[in-house]
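Researcher: I'm preparing a figure for a lab meeting and need a structural model of a single chain. I don't have an experimental structure, so a prediction will have to do for now. The sequence is pasted below. Please return the structure as tokens so I can convert it later.
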Amino acid sequence: MTRTYAATGLFVCFEGGEGGGKSTQSRLLRDWLEGQGHTVRLTYEPGDTSVGKELRRIVLDPATGALANRTEVLLYAADKAEHVDTVVLPALERGEVVITDRYVDSSLAYQGAGRVEDLAGVEAVQRWATRDLRPHLTVVLDLEPADGLGRFEGRDRIEGESLEFHQRVRAKFLALAADDPGHYLVLDARQGIDEIHAAIRERVAPLLGQVAP
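Model: Understood. Here is the structure written out token by token.
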């Protein structure tokens, strides 16, 4: 499958395990870009569409209980398909900067590596669901799972998985980044918020030539 990158706009994704600060850094990047005069669409997966909200409830609510692995893969793929078609692609086609908290890599890490499911099959489904649209840059905020999970008092259905599950997830994120360093930035999430933000700005700034303020 040929890798597809949007011809207009800029697509930035934040990935990583639990408690790494993805939401905080996404908002900081949005605020900085808007200060530079760019139109920014800050979004997230799963759940940032009306259909996605219901899918998010199913996959994250502990009351859902156990799901067959393929069922979980397909639910996340459905959220991604709706998200790309109704949120991400329209914004990119308008020449905006899209920042998403989680994307395809999360399915590869959680449903593929975490669940020890067929990785090739998981990826094929997720790429089809997203029209193989790839972020121009994926920022991985890396943190030891034991540290990240310790930042939560209550845990959702995925956060409540075993430490070994989350260690496999972390390893997959790092492997994805190592395989394509030109489109990834890996940062130690134990660093200060401002230090991380500065490193992200430095990496994003050269990409802004493809989007007009």
